[in-house]
Amino acid sequence: MTRHRSYFTLACAILCVLGSPAAVRTSAAQEVLDGIAALVNNEVITFSQVRDVVGPSENNARQTLRGQALVDKIKELRLAALNKLIDRQLILQEFKELQKKGAQIPPHVIDEHIDTIIREQFGNDRQAFVRTLAAQGMTMERFRQQQEEEIIVQAMRGQQSKSSVIIPEAKIREKYKESLEAYTSEDQVHLRMLVLRKGASESDSRRKMMEEIREKIKGGAAFPDLARMYSDDPTTQEGGGDWGWINRRTLNESLTKIAFNMKPGQLSDIIELQGNYYLLYCEERKKQTVKPLSEVHDELEKKLLQEERQKQQQEWVAKLRKKAFIKIY
Question: Is 90 exceeded by the pLDDT of residue 105?
Answer without folding.
Answer: no
